[in-house]
């Protein structure tokens, strides 16, 4: 599922991810897929790259 999601994002030009951001996306998607709870939305208010 995670591999498919990354491939679709790339192939449809939705977002361009470098290796570090891909790793973060994989981690986040796996947490949601493996969790016993429903996913909660998160609003990013900044970035680690400032």
Written account of the structure:
The structure is a single chain. Helices cover 52% and strands 0% of the residues. It has two helices and no strands.
The total beta strand count reads 0
Helix content: 40-55%
End-to-end separation in angstroms reads 31 Å
Taking pLDDT < 50 over at least 5 consecutive residues as the criterion, the unreliable ranges are none
Query: What is the string of SSEs from the N terminus onward?
Result: HH
Tally of helical segments: 2
Biggest sheet layout: none
Structural class: mainly alpha
Query: Tell me, what's the shape?
Result: globular
Furnish the topology, listing elements before pairings:
Layout: H1 2-11, H2 19-34
Q: Keywords, please?
A:
50 residues; mainly alpha; 2 helices
Quick structural summary:
By secondary structure, the chain is an all-alpha fold. 52% of the residues lie in helices and 0% in strands. The chain contains 2 helices and no strands.
């Amino acid at each position: 599922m995670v591999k498919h999601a990354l491939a679709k994002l790339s192939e449809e030009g939705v977002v361009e991810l470098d290796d570090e951001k891909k790793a973060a996306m994989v981690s986040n998607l796996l947490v949601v897929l493996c969790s016993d709870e429903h996913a909660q939305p998160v609003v990013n208010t900044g970035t680690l790259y400032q």
